[in-house]
Design goal:
Elements (H helix, E strand, L loop, with lengths): L4 E8 L3 H13 L3 E8 L9 E4 L3 H4 L4 H23 L3 E5 L1 H15 L2 E5 L4 H5 L5 H14 L2 E4 L2 H9 L7 E3 L18 E6 L8 H11 L8 E4 L5 H10 L6 E5 L5 H6 E6 L8 H8 L3 E5 L15 E3 L5 H13 L1 H18 L2 H14 L1
Parallel strand pairs: 1-2, 1-4, 2-3, 4-5, 5-6, 6-7, 8-9, 8-11, 9-10, 11-12, 12-13
Helix pairs in contact: 1-14, 3-4, 4-6, 8-12, 11-13
């Protein structure tokens, strides 16, 4: 048994926090001694990790078509060169396109094993791109050729099995939550509602804004923080002014360390149209912040309605999101019960140690 393994993790533009979540259990696995992470730019410092990044000139290419083509070619050649030089035992591509595809092709060329991490739901396989049948075919072909596939929950795993991918090579590996950093603290819960995510319609900051506006009728002094950035940021800011919600909503933009905001918040609202299993939701639960989420992807693998979260079947159902938020703001006993159960579940299933055990199972399988 080889206990001196080298693994490359290809994440592309994956956020810093998600990169850390995916990489920490790999670093913590005793059999892995060398970890190289291929990312657009350097992520958070992780002991035992070396980042391989892109030249700045590529990230500054303005014409989207040329940017995509040049970046794909460079990332492929970069990964191939490092693979020839360092001879990794595994290459793990996070997300199917392009990282999973590049990783699978390079692994076949250099003769090592590969892992593709599917981090979304079915839509990651089918894609939102034009000619979606082609992309679905390509993704399923790639997954069938891969050594191991990791998913974030049962729904996407079952979908892949139904798509004729061997069940034995599918592992449910989410990545870890730093349960020391993201932990319930004895802080004042002075934030009523928290939104954290990319400001785009997929994530629904505009829908959270509507919920806050409705809640203000019963809670005139309600305080909400919005964390993140994206193409809807300016639109949300203008809508806050239009609705005279400046005293109720704080727009903070992107923050590197959201733990303190989860620890200060009572409720985390996430009306996403599509998710795999949200890391932000798990971080919120670890900090004792109760999530109200839409029933998409693998969210209900963890978010159990009335037990540790509140779940809304339709992501556009503003009335139900508002009703559940009002209920939790008025019922501290219920909110505390859900908070306690959420903390316990994340600590049991998503600590670095627990997720590192899944990596060990993958290494044993292969």
């Amino acid at each position: 048994m080889n206990n001196d393994l080298t693994i490359f993790v290809v994440v592309g533009r994956l956020s810093k926090s998600l990169t850390t979540s995916k990489v920490m259990p790999i670093v913590s696995c005793d059999r892995i001694s060398n970890v190289l992470v291929f990312r657009e730019e350097k992520g958070f410092e992780i002991n035992g990790v070396r980042y391989i990044t892109l030249p700045i000139f590529i990230t500054k290419i303005k014409i989207k078509f040329f940017y995509i083509i040049i970046r794909f070619i460079y990332e492929f050649l970069q990964l191939l060169a490092y693979s020839i030089l360092y001879k990794p035992n595994y290459i793990n591509g996070v997300y199917t396109l392009p990282c999973g595809l590049i990783s699978m092709i390079v692994s076949k060329i250099v003769g090592c094993k590969n892992i593709v991490s599917v981090i979304g739901g079915e839509i990651e396989i089918k894609t939102y791109y034009k000619f979606s049948p082609f992309w679905k075919f390509l993704n399923l072909w790639m997954l069938k050729k891969s050594t191991v596939i990791t998913t974030k929950g049962t729904k996407i795993s079952n979908y892949l099995v139904q798509s004729h991918i061997k069940k034995r090579k599918i592992f449910e590996y989410n990545g870890s939550i730093d349960t020391h950093k993201f932990a319930k603290k004895n802080l004042e819960r002075d934030i009523d509602i928290l939104f954290l995510g990319t400001f785009r319609r997929l994530k629904g900051p505009d829908r959270v804004l509507k919920v806050i506006n409705k809640l203000r009728k019963d809670f005139p002094k309600i305080i909400s923080y919005f964390l993140g950035d994206g193409y809807l940021f300016d639109t949300i800011r203008e809508e806050i002014k239009k609705l005279h919600l400046e005293k109720n909503i704080v727009l903070l933009g992107y923050v590197n360390n959201p733990a303190q905001y989860f620890q200060r918040s009572k409720i985390f609202i996430m009306p996403s149209r599509s998710e795999g299993l949200s890391t932000a939701m798990l971080e919120a639960m670890a900090c004792g912040c109760v999530p109200i989420v839409s029933n998409v992807g693998n969210m209900t693998d963890v978010a159990h309605h009335g037990v540790n979260a509140m779940v809304v079947n339709d992501y556009m159902d503003i009335e139900t999101f508002t009703k559940y938020a009002k209920e939790l703001l008025m019922d501290e006993t219920k909110r505390e019960m859900l908070s306690r159960n959420g903390c316990q579940l994340v600590n049991e299933k998503y600590s670095v140690e627990t997720q590192a055990g899944i990596i060990e199972n993958i290494l044993t399988y292969t």
